[in-house]
Q: What sequence folds into this?
DNA sequence: TAGATTGTTAATCGATTAACAATC
DNA sequence: TAGATTGTTAATCGATTAACAATC
């Protein structure tokens, strides 16, 4: 039985990927787990443990080859393969995410954006034609969209999530401050901006 | 020595707060840890443990009074007391956050927004006059701003963060995909949208 | 009282870290 | 070879969960 990868490890993998790109730009060809850990203020043993899930990526006594490790992580994370996403809810947050360069850099392609406001439907927003909510299921199937970014008001989120599940979406990145109740088949990640700032402010005092 | 509160507990506290508000709207006056846990798919013992950090909030045999618990959590989280924030970087994400209602609902007040693009400075964005970056330190002190929301490009973030630390900011909510190096005095929370979607997509396969 | 449910302690689980043999 | 650093095991730490005495 293969050991399952902790979510935190996957998150750090992306941080390693970014650091390695930075190091490449600097012309640095080789790095030890200790130096890499230093860049992100974690322990060297954490770096080695994370990487060890994916085989023997370094050389004892000599550290890691920056380019090789960067490419290996890119392959592990599937950065080169395109995943189709849609954005549901073209309010200011939805529009901002439609324009967000960070998604494209990791291989995510926005294939459709949706809203139900009649003054938005048919208009171009950030270069994407805004489609009506009624067309959602059809377009998701047509465009082979696997991931939905949900930026609708809280009271609309659950209902739309159920529709998304029914038309076979695989994952939802949910910005609405509500717990979505769906079957285990659909992966849900919540980004809760209010929670982030409140938690931060709790610890200042 | 008082036991320190885990960050995860604080985050769940906000989820409890939202659920309790929802229950109040429904006219529900009393709830057990088991029912409250059921709403968010966690264990009842988790709810009781979280609440136990803050005293004896329930009644043995009878559960919790919804209104009383809601208000107690509001006080613990400091929801009624206003905290002043500023937003730095009026790109699409910064503008979306300036318009975001979720911050205001938890007592955060946007006191200033900044950008260094000359075509933005002086203009109203989402109702806030965009101020020049040169005025940042002065305005933060004048307006008693404790928290900065940082939505600038990655390559500008560290430099601005240092300026923020120097002028006494207490916390930074950082949306730039870089590790900020600052003294321990400044609390930093990172919201990494690219990481969120990449992690989600890793686990679908 | 009998039944329900809290508050808290102890057990469990999972993730981080330290330590070190393997080996470049 | 001697020094450096990996890959991995074991120890530690912290958070979640189960269990149950206290008590409403």
A:
């Amino acid at each position: 039985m293969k050991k399952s990868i902790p979510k935190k490890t996957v998150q750090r993998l992306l941080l390693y990927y970014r650091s390695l790109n930075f190091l490449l730009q600097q012309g640095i060809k080789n790095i030890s787990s200790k130096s890499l850990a230093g860049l992100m203020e974690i322990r060297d043993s954490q770096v080695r443990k994370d990487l060890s899930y994916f085989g023997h990526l370094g050389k004892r006594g000599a550290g890691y080859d920056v380019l090789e490790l960067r490419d290996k992580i890119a392959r592990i994370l599937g950065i080169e393969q395109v995943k189709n996403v849609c954005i549901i809810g073209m309010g200011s947050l939805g529009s901002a995410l439609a324009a967000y360069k960070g998604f494209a850099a990791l291989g995510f392609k926005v294939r459709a954006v949706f809203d139900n406001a009649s003054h938005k439907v048919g208009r171009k927003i950030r270069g994407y034609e805004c489609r009506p909510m009624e067309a959602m299921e059809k377009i998701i199937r047509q465009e082979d969209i696997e991931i939905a970014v949900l930026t609708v008001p809280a009271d609309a989120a659950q209902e739309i999530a159920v529709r998304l599940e029914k038309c076979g979406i695989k994952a939802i990145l949910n910005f609405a401050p509500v717990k979505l109740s769906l079957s285990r088949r659909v992966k849900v990640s919540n980004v809760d901006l209010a929670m982030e700032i409140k938690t931060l402010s709790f610890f200042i005092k």
